[in-house]
Amino acid sequence: MTEDQTLKISKIKEGIVIDHIPAGKAIKVLSLLNVGEHSGHTVSLAMRVKSKKRGFKDVVKIENRNVAESELSVISLIAPEATVSYIENYNIKEKRMLSIPDQITGILKCPNQNCISNTKEPVQSSFRVLSREPLLARCEYCEREFRGNELLGKL
Amino acid sequence: MIKNRSIVTIDDVGDDDLNEIFTAAEEMDKLIKSGKKISILESRIMCTLFYEPSTRTRLSFESAMHRLGGGVITMADVKTSSVSKGETLADTIRMADAYSDVIVIRHPLEGAARLASRFTSKPVINAGDGSGQHPTQTIMDLYTIRKELGKIRGLKVTLLGDLKYGRTVHSLILALSKYDAKIKLISPPSLRIPEYLLHRIGDKSSVEVLDTLEGNIADTDVLYVTRIQKERFTDPNEYQSLIGSYSVNNNVLESMKRNSIIMHPLPRVDEIAPEVDQDARAAYFRQAANGVPVRMAIISKVLGGI
Questions:
Q1: Are B133 and B139 in contact (CB under 8 A)?
Q2: Which terminus of chain A has fewer CB atoms gathered within 10 Å of its CB, N or C?
Q3: Residue from A105, A116, A138 whose CB has the most chain B CBs within 10 Å, to mutate
């Protein structure tokens, strides 16, 4: 972020910064991380910040919160170019570039209503990613292929 | 090699496996005709789990196993089994695993056979999953084409009917694309082949999507007809509106080549007129008869009997 942008959101001492979220998707990211009114975290959010790469982007900072590997996979689906910085004592301890995984397991529901993975069977939904841009993935059970909008519709 | 491996989709069977199955099926056909006792799978047990009605597939699988000298156990009726008490398919499969050497399953939900294969170390053979796939029917269809016309590669094949819900054509079209077949897909617009299948074929084969039979089958080697899959429709009015939307009769036969064949996975409703049965090109009953030797070959290969 530029100096001008840092004035909009101040630095955080401990927590995470998720940058390069597509403009307008920050609220969705927070909702996927179950960060909200009752989560007890202080959240800073900037929407439609100027971005060299994408024109505009969203940024969120969540204090005293970590993200698990499985949560990174979920975020990558709606913000495939996002970065996640882990902050300790105002410094970046680690920075991760997100990317859509080869296999998406247990996160998305199969859009095919007649797929066995949508029943009470003891299995998690599982999709093999065939293409990242645009997103195209095949259900490991019914073998149907779905585009991003079909897969993410209910996310 | 398909030994000890599940056959859930036609992609689970390699080109070499297919050729081996064809050769083995010819041998099985001879063995049946010889009337000799066959003990290839003596003391082996096949479990059949049919959650949907079936006549030909179930009978031919069971007949095949009996002919091979093996035994068959079956879930007679879903209504009288633990399934009606709410047992998951996964648990049923765990039991079948303990009681048998190979499991044959037909289920109304897509992906059921794949799920089954994950809860057993025994091979699972998909005998139809919803409107998904029916790979052994496809192997039988390819065997029939080869037997009737002497080859599969490069043939002009027209698939006519309910290409949206008909699982036999879903497996068949994927298999034909490996044989450089020139494929025509003719169906009412609302019953066209799903996009994901066309995407999977990609540029492996020439595919034309058409709406009408007229003027499109003069050069066809194989006309493969399917019935409208009434049981897959959620709206009965939609089904009613499609009844009789295509039919193969003597007029259609006149526009076909002398050395072509007509196939159908059966059962038929009204999509092939009975008058066609008399014509030598009507291959559908011969196709159904191939079910036993082909399934004998498949079960034997999977269980390592030959």
A1: no
A2: C
A3: A116
A12 and A84 in a common domain = yes
Give the structural domain span for A125: 103-152
SS3 B67: helix
Q: Domain check: are A90 and A109 in the same one? A: no
Taking only the tens place, the pLDDT of each residue in B242-300 is 777 788 999 999 999 999 999 999 989 889 999 999 999 999 999 999 999 999 999 99
Q: What is the pLDDT of residue A2?
A: 57
**Same structural domain for residues A113 and A87?**
no
pLDDT tens-place string over residues B37-51: 999 999 999 999 999
Paired with A83 in beta bridges are: A19, A97
Domains of chain B, CATH where assigned: 10-133+291-302 (3.40.50.1370), 135-288 (3.40.50.1370)
Give the chain B residue nearest A146 (alpha carbons). Answer: B196
Q: Please check whether residues A15 and A61 belong to one and the same domain.
A: yes
Q: From the CA of A70, how many Å to the nearest CA of chain B?
A: 23
On whether ipTM exceeds 0.95, the answer is no
Q: Which of B108, B118, B196 sits opposite A144 (nearest CB)?
A: B196
Counting the structural domains of chain A, the total is 2
pLDDT (mean) for B214-236: 88
Kindly state whether residues A84 and A22 are assigned to the same domain.
yes
* CA B142 – CA B43 distance, rounded (Å): 30
CA pair distance B198, B185, nearest whole angstrom: 11
Does B305 reach chain A within 8 Å, measured CB to CB? no
Instruction: Give the pair of three-digit tokens for residue A92.
Output: 């970046």
A31 and A49 in a single domain? The answer is: yes
CATH number where A137 lies: 2.30.30.20
Confidence of residue A8 (pLDDT cuts 50, 70, 90): low
Residues A93 and A37 in one domain: yes
Task: State the nearest Cα–Cα gap between A81 and chain B, in angstroms.
Answer: 27
Nearest to A32 by CA among A99, A82, A78: A78
Interface-testing mutation among B10, B12, B91, B114, with chain A (most A C-beta atoms within 10 A): B114
What values do phi and psi take at A63, rounded to 5? -80, 145
Interchain pair A144, B194: CB under 8 A: yes
Q: How far apart, in whole angstroms, are the C-alpha atoms of residue B200 and residue B11?
A: 11
Question: In which band, very low, low, confident or very high, does the pLDDT at A6 lie, cut at 50, 70 and 90?
Answer: low
Selecting among B9, B44, B48, B57, the annotated active-site residue is B57
